[in-house]
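Section 3.1 - Work completed
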Amino acid sequence: MQAAAFNSVKLPSALVMEARQTAIAMRRSTAGQIEYWAMLGKAVEDGGLTAREAAKALSQPSEPSQAQALLADFVAFDASGQLAQHVRNAIASNAFQAQRLAA
């Protein structure tokens, strides 16, 4: 099996940080997340998205992603010292729901 060839590219720090945050939630590496986004972009272009449609989509402000919101909550709970308690509460809630569904 032949090893894949790799090249280095420079990316804006903000893009890499966003990819890192999303990658954690999606259980990918940062490089894997960026590669995934690149493949999605290529698929969209190959599918016939026009330059005008792309510019319009990119100019619209985006809402924070669910992954970003989850990470923000996680960081806030960690900073407040309440992370462990929130984890215990989530586990207890999930266990209760599982027992209820099993009954």
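Second construct:
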Amino acid sequence: MSFLNLSIIWLICFVATAATQTCEIEDSKFYSLKCQELSSLEEINDFPTRNLTDLQIINTQTKLTIGAANSSLNMPRLSFLDLSHVPRLELLSEGFSNLPYLMHLNISDCGVEQLLASHFPTVCPIIEFDASDNTLSVLTKDLLSKFSKLIFAVFANNSLTHVEVPYMRSLGILDLSHNNLTTFNITLGNCPYLKKLYLNNNKLTQFQITLPAEIVNSSVEKVFSLKALDLSNNSISELIENQFELLGELV
């Protein structure tokens, strides 16, 4: 095969590969983009990103890497990031910490094995977080403590064996269903606005709700916000006596 023919084949392959990496404007003001086959957020260089608020990435073949040290990423206003169509996501040390206004994050079905506190900014503004359908095994207190504004959290369909729930003043919905949890303890005083807790389809043999001591010892009736609790499809043989009496009506 001649050098010319090899060059033509190489050029065709290069053009075909480059053509798969695209970004489309979702609105006329460059506030929203949909991109395909990105290997890093820094590759969005054909559009101004400083005012970008919404970003969706769809990869079928390309691994996406986020969080490199000394990154040149410049997306100070990004608030919505959908990576649910990225089957291979690699989070480096800084993760999403360079996105200070990120409020809605979807990393479901991305093959993520671990989430670290360093992946998120010190003051984390995320209010909706979907990390379902990954292979996470642990959610530590150091990690979850970052999410002081989190309202909606989904960690369903992972491999979780240990979850530590710290004080999360805004948390309203927590989905830990379809994991490998054998025990789970939660202090409702840490999550005063928790309305729905899903723990179905785990391996729970023990479940305990701890009420704040000042409530247990008080004669004043306290109405907690928890309205829905799903413990179905577990191996719980008995529940601690009277632990639900002060919760009010559950669905």
